[in-house]
Known about the structure:
The chain is mainly α. About 95% of the residues lie in helices and about 0% in strands.
Amino acid sequence: MGQRLLQRRLRLTSDKLRDVRLELRVIEDQLEALVDDADDLAIRALVAETPATSFEHRDAQSHVDVMRQHRGKLIVAVGELETTIDTLLDQMKDSTK
């Protein structure tokens, strides 16, 4: 693979990695807030023992679960992008020999 093509792929992959890491930081901040809200609603549901508060807690907890799944996918994506960058750098090094 040509040096220029490798450099272009490396630049695009690096940009994608930066974007995914930024999204991951945002998701982690949001997740922290959602967990706090779900915990508060869990306590309220225990104290009030009404169907409405139980529903609110389950709803908040489902949001937490979805956000955790999304966070997990982003973590996997970061790992894959880092591996791709390492591979591209190795290819660039090998092509200069």
